Amino acid sequence: MSAFPGWRGRRLRRTPALRALVRETRLTPERLILPLFVTEGEGVRTPVGSMPGVWRTSVDEALVDAREAAELGVGGVILFGIPERKDAEGTGAWDDQGAVQRAVRAIKDAATELAVLTDVCLCEYTDHGHCGVLRDGAVDNDPTLDLLARTATSHARAGADLVAPSDMMDGRVGAIREALDHEGFEQVGILSYAAKYASAFYGPFREAADSRPAFGDRSGYQMDPANQDEALREVWADIEEGADVVMVKPALSQLDVIQRVKRETGWPLAAYHVSGEYAAILAAAERGWLDGERAMREALVSIARAGADIVITYWAREFARVRS
Ligand code: PBG
Fold first, then answer.
1. CA of 14 to the centre of ligand 1 (A)
2. What confidence tens digit (pLDDT) does each residue in 78-112 have?
3. Measuring from each residue's beta carbon to the nearest atom of ligand 1, which residues come in under 6 Å?
4. Contact status, residue 276 vs residue 203, Cβ threshold 8 Å
5. b or e along 263-292 (b: 16 or more beta carbons within 10 Å of the residue's beta carbon)?
6. Residue 167 carries which DSSP code?
């Protein structure tokens, strides 16, 4: 009876009600995190050309977006900063009065139901666009750790719930954990971009965050897309150093990695549906080549099905609005 014609898969697909009864994955807005790009000034809302629906905003406008996300039931926001001035070390990253730090304080005050995350990296703050300090034309790992730790503690002082290092330096999770604990922030968690690949799909983000490397690329510190075992080593290293949540990034081209990390670690897992994945679908939808709303749902639910507990997506609000 378990083979045709006794078993017929189509019986359970006949109506929306039957399909809903046997649906295996339910993605709800509280599992989504909305990225926000914050900059100096007031009343600023500049569209990002390659990411329709995404803006660079000043803190007051970021608060408007965060409030809207909260009203729609979105779980949290992750903040990226675009400073007015950049330098070789990225000193703007740990400025307690920086746009990210002010945005954290404003959002924690006015949208208390949201989890507030901050991206910890130097690439938006360095004049060369790399994720750490340079020595002989390459990113110097160990001196960068202290700068990342300073950035993370500055975000913690502002009130961040989770700090999210995205730099891919070795040892940064441990360095950040130690610095947070030392300053009394033992309750502030770390979501580490643990398996972050050197991806072509970050292109539009670098326009949004103005963080394109001035020379070379990031393959000296981000992972080779051909590797899967290495992702597990990266994830275990971050867990051992104190990561509370680990992340795989990008998401759609790394579904196998998401599934394996979840199965092998059982750790809380996030996946970042990145700028290029978002832009590619929207560009095709704009041309009428596919149905953008259906593609959005399919993309996001697939990431959850693979094993992600948390999905970072520029569609967080749109998904919350249209989900059935
Ligand atoms: C910063 C950072 C990047 C992204 C998140 N944090 C860009 C990069 O590594 O170049 C990409 C996010 C996206 O593409 O949506 N290091």
1. 42
2. 999 999 999 999 999 999 999 999 999 999 999 99
3. 119, 121, 123, 131, 166, 202, 205-206, 211, 218, 274-275
4. yes
5. eeeebbbbbbbbbbbbbebbeebeeeeeeb
6. S
